[in-house]
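so the lab meeting is tmrw and i was supposed to have these ready like two days ago... anyway. pasting both below. for each one the top line is the aa sequence and the line under it is the structure tokens. i havent really looked at them closely yet so no promises
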Amino acid sequence: MPFVEGESLKERLKRDWRLPIPEAVRLACEIARALDYAHRSGVVHRDMKPGNVLLHDGHAMITDFGIARALNVAAADPNLTSAGTAIGTPAYMSPEQGMGEPSVDGRTDIYALACVLFEMLSGSAPYVGRNAQQVMMRHFVDPIPSVRPGRDDIPVSVDDAIRKALSKQPAGRFASAADFATALEAGHVNWTFTPDSGLPAIGTSVSASNSGPTAAINKPLLDRFVAVLPFENMSADPENEYFSDGITEDIITNLSKIQTLKVMSRTSTAPYKKHGKNVREIGRELGVSHVLEGSVRRAGNKVRVTAQLIDTETDHHLWAKTWDRELDDIFAVQSDVAECVAHCMRAKLSPTDASRLAKKPTENIEAYNLYLLGRHHYNKVTPDDFAKAVDYLKEAADLDPEFTTAIASLAEAYQYLGMGYWGVRPHDAHPEAFKLATKAAELDPNNGSAHASIDLYYDWYRFDFEKGGAELARAVELYPSGSMLRMYYAMHLCAVGKFDEAMVHRDIACQLDPSAMAIRGNATWVLYLARRMEQAIEECRNIRQIDPTSSYAAFSHGLVCAQGGDKREGIQAFRDAARLGEGITLYQVSLAYGLAAGGEHAEAAGLLDRLEKLSQKEFVWPMGMGMAYAHLGQEPKAMDWLEKAYDERVGYMLMITREPALDILRSSPRFQNLAQRIGPNTA
């Protein structure tokens, strides 16, 4: 090989962060033409990344074909790595290569090159995360990003070419690397920065990228995604941790009310508590444009709050402020923080937004303190903590009967219990939740949480999808950054057969809260209900790797594999869920179903006998019992349990005509009659 005197593209990007647009496009075209030659010669590179591109006399040279694959495997050099294994670099690896598919071709290199060009233009790869598994999952499930936010001087035609090359399916990409180069060249012109605006104008070449404080403040309107990191508890008493956590959550809630702002959910920012990472690194991992961080110090009736907003691309502090206030003035501080963040990020506040931010949730500071304790325990999601959360929220609502936020949170807690999974009868939870949510909505028609709980009552308890859909649409409108609201909406759309729309809200939910197992688990359910089994299985495997201790992730994995994949894999996932769930009957019932679907009928029957006896003492998930008996071939008993699930108003029954596990019963007249009672619009 000839000696190349120069540096790698990786070294260049490390030094300059991102490249001038004409240079980035030119280099990408040179790489594309080189790849096209390799592909026409029968070789796929499979590890296209900045570290494997050398810059020599200003031109790009591809190196390191160490894991290349010959397209004609029979004629391949035996020393070349074979296909069928997920070898490569996650930040640049196509979905099909990440799944270890044996049939990768030149289009996987086109995808990787699009990732490289994206990084040359934006300073970051299109998909980032805290670990390799999370990065790969984002390649599978996250929406295809645009490279123009943060740099709107990039021609739309270049952005379109990159997005086409990043298609999830190979068939959606360019047929050849040469075609990719042609598309890039078609939109390639020379740019320069005009001295007046700082924005690019068509003309001569550009020698430097637009960066620095002015560029950070003048980000385009489409790039307003903020993560609120857990505010540090600076109080002398460590028991005040719940207070600083509550302030963080309320600031997130206030920011989520702003229609033109996108806000990362709490569960995905919680792991960054006492993180020690720099803001650029956090921005890359979370995929956000800005980070808000701060601290809370409480002493008696005094509180000090500090906050600062940082641009994750430049590490530039856009705004910082300290408040020293009386404790009962904490709401004004929270509103002030939200308004300042909105102003700095150029997120326009509508009159409704401003009114909602200014509204004080309660005049009773003790009720607010109880509310924070309730949310603190609610977010731990254990049976004992959940019981404590309900008690604290009840106390808060009793102290201030017009404390809408506490009332809506209590309704949310009852709705959670009323799903029929956790040993609580839906009849004992949903009506109370509806009463509380209705009261909260009457007190504050703009409370999105209240509308969401009303939706769950109609969708999951009454099976009235028209009323439920209207309430949920209103909730999403009020809290566009509510990740769980988006997921509920996706599930609602699945129930009525609108799967394409469901995918949109599913993807947004995953982007807003990429670390939450409740979001990621339900995201696999949406794919499963839409019969996109291969993608659902891969996502399940990924979330299991991200959090091997999550019983919910294991449960979701089992549910998908029982019908869409290797049934032995499904059984093992259900066994993991039962083990990790520490006796929760939902997972025991699911294991019985998985065993029945997987052909382990004797073990399934024995477990069902034990669950039948248990059902005399406590509520067990009747829909799961029906699914299990159906796969044991006991149709009458299966229908008896499904009829009971209907009578008990078990929420997941809204999916009766979508659930693949029930395909085995579709020809049954009893099943068809039951489906009609739930709603003809689901048939």
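ok protien two:
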Amino acid sequence: MQIPGLNLHVERLRAPLPMFLGRVDATQWRDAARAVVAAHGRLVSTWGSEAALDGVAGFAVSAAYAVPSGLFWLQLPLGPATTYPDISAQFYFASRMQRATADLLGLTAEGAADQRRWLNHGAWPDGFFPLRKDCSVPERFGQVQDYPFVAVQGDGVHEIPVGPVHAGIIEPGHFRFSVVGEKVLRLEERLGYTHKGIEKRFTQLSALTAHRLAGRVSGDSTVAFGWGYCMALESATGVHIPARAAWLRALMLERERVANHLGDLGALGNDAALGFGLAQFSILREDWLRTSLDVFGHRFMMDRVVPGGVAADIERTGLERVRRQCDSAEAQVRRLREIYDDHPGLQDRFITTGRVRPELAAELGLTGLAGRASGQAVDLRCQSSWSPYDTLGVRMATHKNGDVAARVSVRFDETFESLRLIRAICAELPKGETRAPIPQPSAAAFGAGWVEGWRGEILVALELDSTGAICRCHCHDPSWQNWPVIEHAAMDNIVPDFPLINKSFNLSYSGHDL
């Protein structure tokens, strides 16, 4: 398999999905970005690392590209150098990833237009790069410095700063609005307030236990990240999990998807002043989470996905309970959809608000649920030989309007499809073991996990050193792609509609600020 238009040697990773690893030089790094654009592929993630490659210590940058033939993980060894070619001209959202790499490792994208700090808010001492192996934590950090927001000039233009601390129980993020009256001319975000050092912590854990940390990258996607990490480890060690384990992982992943859609549908109704919607969907979601607790032992199914399979099986009575709940929930959600669709006030707030047209979505790299609502037909469950989805026949939910109403519509459609998938899994769940033994890694290896979470595709890239220890584990949340798009979605809307627009994406702060 090759990236169309690029002559490059790659080797296939031992993974259930078509994933390939290749080393490139600086010229090939640039050419690969251009070739992926020409092939209508997409950048999934880019990140940096410090590791011994071919026995030579130094730095490297990696990029994961998705093209029709699979996922290509390209690694550019830098040796002692700390610069590499910029690819943000080809992929708009790569800018923030490159800025994060500069903050964490001191590796700079040459020629990038935006060199501002991203995760470093100015309190880190000079020369402090937390992902470097020789990094030591200082006794004292400095004061947070002002961020150089882009100023908008003109008659009647003023700024509205929102956050980083918000009135609701949500994570911190700063939003700087440039407005005339209530019309938004420009929105600029400042994130990174929840940087927790997770990627550094991975290197201090054993490969067989680090799945628990992966499951805490973003709590609303614990199954997706847990599966992504375990897939990466299984890929690196060449382990094939039992069929029943794969089906149980899919069952939990779809339950996670439904739980989040139920919560968001209620919150979207509430943000448009329909408190009834919040109440009804909250009841449904709470019942859903309680069933997960009873059946899998945890409301969010945290730590249920483990290396080699799953930690919790399900009895026949549990399968029957899950199926009955799907029937009940579907009837109630269909009735609630009728109410939402027929409510004039709600539709007035939803329709045309926060629109991202398909052309702009493609240009900016909008992905996942929000991307599908703007005509970007990408869903790993539908487009790969990923068990058990290769036999379930997933029907992709898409829309072309790209507004809040479209994102609400996709959530409803995906909820109904997930309920269908859950019933199918319960009916066809194969018998057998639920876990395969994973040997303690003892050699250098690479592995990748690629999973369609409820927000979009999640990537976990794992590098093991010659002793089998983790030298780098990069977890990527699709919020990296989508946060910059919200800045465009808010333009030409009014300030009071921003909470509605923001909620219709519902992106992760925590998954972005590792």
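from a quick look at the 2nd one: The longest helix spans residues 243-271. The domain at 11-110 is CATH 3.30.460.80 (Beta Polymerase; domain 2). will dig more after coffe
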